[in-house]
Amino acid sequence: MSASAGGQTYYFRAGAPEGGVFLGQLRAASADEALGLLRQKGFQPLRLELRPIRDAWFNREISVGSSNRLTTAECESFCRELALLLASGIAVMDAIAILLPSQRRGSRPARFATALRYGLRLGRSLSQAIESSDFRMPTDFLPVMRAGEETGLLPAALTMLAESYADANRFARAYSSALAYPALLLCVSILVFGLIAFLVAPNLASLFTSMDRPVPFAISALAGGASFVGGNLLATGVVMLCVLAAIGGASAAIGRRLHAVLFRVPFVGDAMRWSASRRFAATLRLYLSSNVPVATALPNALISAGFPGGPEQARRLADRVRGGARLSTSLDGTVFLPPKLIHMIAVGESGGRMVEVLGAVVTEAKNRFEQRMALVSALLAPILILIVGFLIGTVIFSVFSALLDINEVVL
Q1: Using the 8-state DSSP alphabet, how is residue 89 labeled?
Q2: Is residue 351 classed exposed, middle or buried when 0-12, 13-18 and 19+ CB atoms within 10 A define those classes?
Q3: Cα distance between residue 224 and residue 128, in whole Å
Q4: Phi and psi for 12 in degrees, rounded to 5?
Q5: Mean pLDDT in residue range 260-274
Q6: What is the CA radius of gyration of the chain?
Q7: Burial level of 77, CB count in 10 A (0-12/13-18/19+)?
Q8: CB atoms < 10 A from the CB of 378, how many?
Q9: Dist CA 92 CA 66 (whole Å)
Q10: Nearest-angstrom CA–CA distance, 125 and 88
Q11: How many of the other CB atoms lie within 10 Å of CB of 51?
Q12: What is the DSSP letter of 211?
C-alpha cells in the first residue's frame, strides 16, 4: 500500500474493510496524513509506527500463558492501540470491539479485552471494568486510566502509559542483553560447583581423613552438601518445590517489599525515583489541565507514581494541601521525590504556571531516568561478572590449596 512519494515511511496495523487485521506500510508527510489515508481506504487504524511492527517470540516477556497478569509489553500495545482509536472519535465500547479481533485467540490480551467489553456492557466505566476484570497489571495502569476518564483526557493518558511502558520494555531488552554473558557464566559456575562437589570434593575429603589431616572448610562443605543431596534427593526436591510454591503465593508481598528496598539501593533507587517522579508529574498534569483541584488530584497522582507507601503517603499529603499548605511545601517532606523537581514545582506554584512546569518536570524526569538507567545497565554486567568470578575463584583456590597441601605431605 503506497501513497505519496515524499514524506517518510509509516508502518501500520489496521482492521481491513473485508475483515481481519492487515499489516502494511505507506509513505506520508505526517502521522495525521497517514491516518487519514488509511481511513479513506476503509481501514480502521490500530497501530502506527515509524519502524516495522514485529511480534517475534524473543521480543515477548516470559510469562505463563494462562495467567491473568498482563506484561508491560501487552499493556503498551493495548494502550497505544486504544489511544489511537479513541483519538479518532470512536467510543470506548466500539474501540474495544475493534481491538478484540486483532488479538490472538485465547491469549491474555484477548481475554482481557473480552472482560472489558463485558464490564462496559454492564454500564461500568473503563476503569471500573478494568478493576473488576480480575487481571493484574502494572501499578500505574489503573490510576492513570482513572485520571484520564475523570479529566476527559483518556487518549492522552493512554499515550502517556504507552510511552512509559515502551521505555520500560526498551530498558528491559537492554538489561537482557547486558545480563546474557553473566547468566551464561553463572550457569557454567553452577555446573563447575556441581562437578567439584560430587566428583572431586568427596575424594579429597576422604584423602585428608586417611592422612589424619584437617579437611579444608570449602572441601568439607562441598562434600557434605553433595552427600546430603545425594542421600535425600526426593526430600530435597519436595522442599525446593514447596519453597517455590511459597514464593509464588507470596509474590505480591515480596514484590512490594523488594520494590521498597530497591528505592534505597544506590544508582538503581535513583533511576526508580526519577521514573516514579515522571509518572507523578504526568498524572498530576492531566488533572490540573482540566482544572481539578490539587488536593483532589494528589492522591491518585502519587498512587500512579508507585512510590513505596503510596496510599498512606497520598492521604497525608492531601490532608496537608487541604489544610492550606502549598504543594511544594508538602512534598518537601517526602523521601523519594528528587529535590530538583520539588524546586521546579515551587517555581510553578509561585508563577501560577503549574501545568507548563509539570510538563517540563516530565521531560526532565525522563531524561534523568534514561541517564541513570544507561549507567546502571553499563555497570550491572561487570559487577555480576566480578561476583561470579570471585565465587568460582574462591572454590578453585580452595581445591588447589588442598592439592598443594597433599603434595607437601607426600614430599
Answers
A1: T
A2: exposed
A3: 56
A4: -135, 155
A5: 74
A6: 28
A7: buried
A8: 11
A9: 26
A10: 19
A11: 8
A12: T
Of the CATH numbers 3.40.50.300, 1.20.81.30, 3.20.20.220, 3.50.50.60, which one belongs to the domain with range 164-411?
A: 1.20.81.30
Cβ atoms of 48 and 28 closer than 8 Å: no
The residue ranges of every structural domain in the chain are 1-53, 69-137, 164-411
- The pLDDT of 106-115, averaged and rounded, is 85
**Could you report the per-residue pLDDT of 283-340, keeping only the tens digit for each?**
888 888 777 777 777 777 777 777 776 667 777 777 777 777 777 777 776 666 778 8
CB 10 within 8 A of CB 27: yes
| Model confidence, pTM | 0.64
Cell numbers of 302, please?
A: 502519587
Q: Which amino acid is at 202?
A: P
pLDDT in tens, 172-228: 777 777 777 777 877 887 787 777 777 877 877 777 777 777 777 777 777 777 777
Residue 4's alpha-carbon distances to 8, 22, 31, 359, in angstroms, are 9, 20, 13, 35
With the C-alpha atoms ordered 80, 81, 86, 88, is the resulting torsion angle positive or negative? positive
